[in-house]
Design a protein that fits this description.
It is a single chain. The protein is mainly α. It has a single domain, classed as Hypothetical Protein Ta1238, Chain: A, CATH 1.20.1200. Helix content is 58%, strand content 7%. The protein is built from 5 helices and 4 strands, in the order ββαααβααβ. The strands form 2 sheets. A two-stranded antiparallel ribbon has the order 1-2. Strands 3-4 form a two-stranded antiparallel sheet. A hairpin with a 3-residue loop joins strand 1 and strand 2. Helix 2 packs antiparallel against helix 5, helix 3 packs parallel to helix 5 and helix 4 runs antiparallel to helix 5. It comes from Nitrosopumilus maritimus (strain SCM1). This is ATP--cobalamin adenosyltransferase. One of its GO terms (molecular function) is corrinoid adenosyltransferase activity. InterPro entries: CblAdoTrfase-like, CblAdoTrfase-like_sf, PduO-typ.
Length: 178
């Protein structure tokens, strides 16, 4: 199979169910941002990370394919590859587990501190954009609302994990100062 099909040369692209839409449709922006978040996460994973963090992030990379698949399928009756409540609960459990190692947050912090944390904060901002674009899609088309919740929790998890990576590496969070 060739990588190029020429079917998108007119500015349209295919969705699941053999539907075609414009490449400027909000659906394309939403799952494109999810794909970008996954690529940013791939960059994070090139760093030396503790095994528990690495394993969670690798699982999330696979889950982000489910999110993208879900957003690319406008047929909500098709239950294959949908974001589930269990996926959201797993993020929440990881947030709680990792946050239990951290001191309470008493200040706003700036993204950074260490290289892996900085990369994870970047991935977090891409996830926030994916969430915003998914909300915009939901305002136009009906979608699985779990996609929005998943992306919201994912950015929270990335924030917590960034703090945890700094703590485990002995790097102080950077406090926002006015």
């Amino acid at each position: 199979m060739k990588i190029y099909t020429k079917t998108g040369d007119d500015g349209n692209t295919g969705l699941q169910g053999n539907l075609r839409i414009s490449k400027s449709h909000p659906r394309i922006f939403a799952y494109g941002a999810v794909d970008e978040a996954n690529a940013a996460l791939g960059i994070v994973l090139t760093n030396s990370l503790d095994e528990d963090i690495f394993d969670v992030l690798r699982k999330i990379q696979n889950d982000l394919f489910v999110v993208g698949s879900d957003l690319s399928n406008p047929n909500l009756n098709d239950v294959k590859n949908r974001v589930s409540l269990e996926m959201i609960q797993e993020l929440e459990q990881n947030i709680d587990k990792f946050e239990s190692e951290l001191p309470p947050l008493t200040n706003f912090i700036l993204p950074g501190g260490s290289t892996p944390t900085s990369k994870l904060h970047y991935a977090r901002t891409v996830v926030r954009r994916a969430e915003t674009l998914t909300v915009q899609l939901a305002e136009k088309d009906e979608i699985n609302s779990n996609c929005i919740i998943y992306l919201n929790r994912l950015s929270d998890l990335f924030f917590v994990m960034g703090r945890l990576i700094n703590k485990r590496n002995g790097t102080e969070d950077i406090i926002w100062k006015i």
